[in-house]
Amino acid sequence: MAHPSKSGIRKKLLSLGLCLVGFQALWGTYMVYPRWSRNYSPVQQGKDLISGSLSADQMLFALAGFRELIAGILWVRADSFFESGNYDAILPIIRLVTFLDPHQIDVYATGMWHIGYNFTDEEQRSDRRYLPSALALGKEGSSQNSNTYELFFETAWLWYHKIDDNYDRAVGWMEKADSVADIKLLPARRNLLSRLYERNGQIDKALDHWFTVLDAAEVSYQADKERRDYSIRQNRDTIENNLDNLLIRMSQRGHFASKEGRSLDDYDVMPPFDVGFGVKVTVTAERVLRIQGNWDVLSVGTRIRCILRDADYPNAIAGGAIWDAGSDMSFEPPRDQTYMMDSLFVRNQRFDKTVDMSRDPTMYPFTKEKYLLEFYYNPRSAPHHIQDKFGWNGEGMTDKTTTNIRTDIRPGQRCFYYAIELTRDEILLRKGSRGKTVTKKSDSYRETKEDYSNTDTGKPDLPGQGGQ
């Protein structure tokens, strides 16, 4: 009986292997791809965008084990969608790439930025309903790549820059980033943690961290004296300047005196300054609000947060929301929810802004019966020159004509908060509001004949130039 040759055995094993790979791919195609395509891949002009991005052999390779290769091909394909502004098409590609290769750090970071920033209305207001998905992507990416600081940093930055609230979250993520060794390759990024400690009211920790990064920067500077790298010297000088400024502010704002139990009467935060808030809201057309008001803080730099949301918006808190309360990563925000956020720029102690939501009915569907129009101001987000008077915790801020200074909505802080209730019929000018001018205002609102709707023109901020 003839024995098979070694080459014949190799050929048979190779054939068997190819059959197994083919079976795996076909089984994956049969079991996985239809569900993925149905749930995640949008159809545009009758074409499945995921299958349209991969050829048949590429899809076969992906399911047969060439995951990183196909992930790279997909990400290159996503560039064309970015260039054409077809942002909806990028979301499923981001998800598929991270599924195929969970160590694609740039995809996670770009995906967080894309989801958090790129979906806007006609007036460039971000769709806040996407924030939970952006944060969930950061959470997943950092857990898959815990050996590097990058996605911890990106998630902290999203809390700090985009959400600008719930500062304890930003601190927590940045502390994780600061604990990973490779952040020392970009030492300037460590400086953010001191800023976040300030935002979170942890002033002593902010000071300690400035000293820590200054020590590290000084070591780098001394080791680099011969080469004289400008960025190393600049980082050291920047840290030293920031540390000096913080010490001055801690002194002038009475931080040291407060810790010692001494009176703050002789410090910049006393006596408390009366913000003199008042507001009038007029529904000028369907889904269009004109918001006018007085705010007696004279210097330019105040931006009051304005939110219009469903009265029962999930995970909402006064002046914001707990955006990381869930863990789902959905490409489709709930289409029956409305959440608009904007800033009211104060000039000459007045603000006047028209918020037009009429051109974005999918972003502002107004399906609920009741809504809250919120006005929120947190001194921890204020520019330094205003914070010098109000303090880190709002101890230098009051509102004598109202009870709008609240201590119960952000731990350890005195924030400004005021809300007006609106109904769906009032916003859409329907039923009993049809043909009427819907106006609501606070008792403290002061009428004015001046036009403050254009923040680029008008009188400068000078003492005695308020619009009363």
SSE topology:
Elements: H1 6-31, H2 33-40, E1 43-44, E2 47-48, H3 49-53, H4 56-64, H5 67-84, H6 87-100, H7 105-117, H8 131-144, H9 150-163, H10 167-178, H11 192-199, H12 203-223, H13 230-252, H14 255-259, E3 273-274, E4 278-285, E5 288-294, E6 303-310, E7 316-317, E8 320-321, E9 339-345, E10 350-356, E11 370-377, H15 384-390, E12 397-398, E13 405-406, E14 415-423, H16 424-428, E15 438-441
Parallel strand pairs: 3-12
Antiparallel strand pairs: 1-2, 4-5, 4-15, 5-10, 6-9, 6-11, 7-8, 11-14, 13-14
Overview of the molecule:
Among the domains are: 16-101, no CATH class; 273-441, no CATH class. 43% of the residues lie in helices and 15% in strands. The chain has helices at 6-31, 33-40, 49-53, 56-64, 67-84, 87-100, 105-117, 131-144, 150-163, 167-178, 192-199, 203-223, 230-252, 255-259, 384-390, 424-428, and strands spanning 43-44, 47-48, 273-274, 278-285, 288-294, 303-310, 316-317, 320-321, 339-345, 350-356, 370-377, 397-398, 405-406, 415-423, 438-441. The N and C termini lie far apart (110 Å). Residues 9-33, 35-53 and 463-468 have low confidence and may be disordered.
